[in-house]
Amino acid sequence: MTLWNNNTEIEFFTEALKNFASPEQLFYNLQGSYYAYIPKGFDAEGQTLQSRNALIGQFTEKWCRSLFESIAKELGLYALNSVICEEIGLSRQSSADLAFCTTSDTLQKPENIKFLFEIKMSVVSNYKYTYPNLIEYIGDYKQHKGNPSLLRSDSMLKAIGKSINIRVSSFAAAKIPIIILGNSPITENYVKKVDFLKTSGVIQGFWSLNPNPTSSEYIKNTPKFGFKTIINEEQLFNNCEELISSDMNYFSSMISKSKLGEIITIASQENTDIAKAEKFLTLIRS
After folding, report:
1. Using one digit for the tens of pLDDT, what is the confidence trace for 81-91?
2. In 75-152, which ranges are continuous DSSP H helix?
3. Cα torsion at 181, 183, 184, 187 (round to 10°)?
4. Are the CB atoms for 113 and 84 separated by under 8 Å?
5. Considering the domain 6-245 in this protein, what is its CATH number?
6. Rounded distance between C-alpha atoms, residue 164 and residue 161, angstroms
């Protein structure tokens, strides 16, 4: 399976129309012509299009699972949608969009979850629909008025908020990497934020699965790789394998320097680096 591209978006529209979605649920009707987004220079005529959100959400979750299934299998894991784990804040109302787990159950224990993905993907480029079944690409995201995927501030904030909720729900989430999956670049406003979230350990990265969102300039990677554009499936596998095998631990605290020094002194008395790390984490969480 290839990474996200214009053909994937045309596939979404084609499938949705075949499954009885109406053109009005998927496109803006502008003077009798149907567009995925309002082209620049056009008037929206008071229209807002919310009905497509649920449909593209369902499509992207299934698409991501198909993309990641072979990677999970090679790592000895299962790629699952809608994973529930109340202990780390994943309820039925706010389940994991995609997770790598050691078992194939939707209801999971924290120790069985090895990877969490939050999916923030949408239609990126613009298309024109002509009845009965012609869907034409007419321009990239810079040529329409929409803000798709990770270019939307509300999508970024929702993803960050959900990730923080998982991190603060339980120490059981401390060993689980969290990745935000998108199919667009990010805006300049979020460059420092995503790098800080990565270096602080809250989120292990924002990945765009769309290697060619536009032919013009865009942010491909941030300086500390809090955001990165995935170029091919080999890179995607290598990134997943590296995170899974790193045996990382998230920790966060706000304590006095004297208390921190005391913890470091006690932990440093252990015999090995691993034992020192385990002692440090135990003390800082107590």
Report:
1. 999 999 999 99
2. none
3. -10
4. no
5. 3.40.91
6. 5
Residue pointed to by tokens 């554009």: 229
DSSP 166-219: HHHH-GGGTT--EEEEESS---GGGHHHHHHHHHTTS-SEEEE--S-S-SS---
- For the four alpha carbons of 45, 48, 51 and 52, in that order, the dihedral sign comes to positive
Span(s) in the chain for CATH 3.40.91? 6-245
Q: Give the whole-angstrom CA distance, residue 31 versus residue 45.
A: 9
41: DSSP letter: T
- Report the predicted TM-score, pTM, of the whole model to 2 decimal places: 0.93
Calculate helix-pair angle for 191-199, 153-169, nearest 10 degrees. Answer: 10
**For 196-214, how does the pLDDT look when each residue is reduced to its tens digit (9 = 90+)?**
999 999 999 999 999 999 9
